[in-house]
Amino acid sequence: MEIRDKYQIKNDICYILPTNARHELSRPYGILFSHVDNLANFLNNFKRIISVGDVVTKTLLDNEIIPFLSIVDGKTKRKAFIIDKNFQAINVLNEPGVIRLSVMKTLYKILKSDTKGTTFVMVNGEEDLLVIPVVIYGKEGDVVVYGQPNAGAVALEVSEAMKWRVKDIFSKFEVKKC
Predict the structure, then answer these.
(1) Is 73 annotated for ligand binding?
(2) What is the pLDDT of residues 104-132, one digit of tens each?
(3) Which end of the chain is more exposed for a tag (fewer CB within 10 A), N or C?
């Protein structure tokens, strides 16, 4: 049996983004906002907001928009980044270019719960690809907000059509033991 660091991961499964599918994830899949005021007005229409990324999460919090779930890695463009809000965090391990099954299970539990308040997932590694399980496990009508580097923030409404599109991309991932 294999045990690694504080995450207690035993024989985890990794879904690896293949090189030939990277181009599909480089474009925004929702509405791109370059101004926070427009984004804030748009988000007023949603009950559950899920933020993925440090800058997006900090921008929402600074504008008093409190996400149901925030997923961050403490880095922006690979440089350390601190969100100065004091939330209790769940720590997970998720390497760049990978989605770990253990992280997917954690996100599933959070997204299927009816808890009130914010859950903060702190990723040791990289959080970018975690938009995929968030869309797959999110409830219809949730909105996922993630950063589009050097462009702004993308707001993506969870719907059956979007779940289908994301599952199609995810089906191209390679599966192996971590």
Answers:
(1) yes
(2) 999 999 999 877 778 899 999 999 999 99
(3) N
